[in-house]
Amino acid sequence: MKALVVGGAGYIGSVVTRLLLAQGHDVTVLDDCSTGHADSVPTGVPFHQIDITAAGTVLAADRYDAVLHFAAKSLVGESVARPAPYWHTNVGGTRALLDAITEHHVPTLVFSSTAATYGEPDTIPITETAPTRPGNTYGATKLAVDMMITNQTTASPLAAVSLRYFNVAGAALGAGERHTTETHLIPNALRAITDTGSSGPMTIYGTDWPTPDGTPIRDYVHVLDLAHAHVQALTAAQPGHHLIANLGSGDGYSVHQVLTTIETVTGQRVPTTTGPRRAGDPARLVASNTLAQEKLGWTPQLTLTHMIEDAWAFHTDGRTIR
Ligand code: UFG
């Protein structure tokens, strides 16, 4: 299959690019490197360092079987403080990409959606029929794109799959998290262990949540399991249909439980301090992954311990275990 990976120089896009290559697919990467890294694109892979709105020039030059779309602004807090760039890039950029996909008759699209489209859930686990009430601009823009894709598949033979990621972690195939602005729990905790002088202790955002140990519960999924779901989505996609599926493990871990697992894996104490709740954080997000099992044949294989082992190896010496 010939695939264009839009956002292929970022964390998840670069792991998916490597998995597609390992499985013998022909991959081209498009990324403006606003947050991604050019050196995350494997040597020999055709790479266009251009804006998503120029994707039509790439799609015009060759016949592609699929586009996998990871490019987005994704900092939840920033999206609330500065919404306009999120609407421009995430929604406007994807509109331009969809127009190019239509014009050049690309049959299949796989899109990176998010659990942030649901907001605070009424019930756990969260199924794909749960109400979508995003609590921040980031989630709202991803939901808008999901709606845009649904409309597109109604009006055209496009086969589309939106994958709603829960908390992605770990590293694989030589790639891992390299965010300049890092907000995520696991990399922040690892950094607090190794950069004691510069970064100081990691802040736990509230210990007064309505959960058994007072810290929020999340559903962590390994980036390699996630990458496999994308490959399976390429074959599961049906012309004229938009499948929306959650990608999570179905298990929830509190912040305290994650930190304890990090201390077990690394053999080191995570320096922490307790701060106030972070605005927009829900208490508990756990996926139902039944639909992904049924429609994609996807079952996650790797545990939270694997994610932390792999993130730790990548953090300490840029190595990946898997
Ligand atoms: N946390 C801390 N301290 C930190 C970082 C995180 O206590 O330094 C806590 C958060 O409060 C939260 C948990 O750890 O309870 C996980 O936080 P992350 O920032 O790692 O992940 P989120 O659950 O906030 O965000 C993830 C994705 C987003 C997506 C969101 C859906 O990274 O892209 O899930 O709600 F929008």
UniProtKB/TrEMBL annotation:
- Catalytic activity as recorded in UniProt: UDP-alpha-D-glucose = UDP-alpha-D-galactose
Listed pathway(s): Carbohydrate metabolism; galactose metabolism
MF terms (GO), sorted A to Z: UDP-glucose 4-epimerase activity
Give the Pfam families listed for this entry.
Epimerase
| Keyword check for Transferase | no
Cofactors, names only: NAD(+)
Residue ranges constituting the NAD-dependent epimerase/dehydratase domain according to the UniProt record: 3-241
Q: Keyword annotations for this protein?
A: Carbohydrate metabolism, Isomerase, NAD
Q: Which EC number(s) are documented for this chain?
A: 5.1.3.2
Q: Does the keyword Nucleotide-binding apply?
A: no
Q: Name one GO biological process term.
A: galactose catabolic process via UDP-galactose, Leloir pathway
Q: Which family does it belong to?
A: Belongs to the NAD(P)-dependent epimerase/dehydratase family.
The entry describes its oligomerization and partners as:
Homodimer.
Q: What is this protein called?
A: UDP-glucose 4-epimerase
Task: Name its species.
Answer: Nakamurella multipartita (strain ATCC 700099 / DSM 44233 / CIP 104796 / JCM 9543 / NBRC 105858 / Y-104) (Microsphaera multipartita)
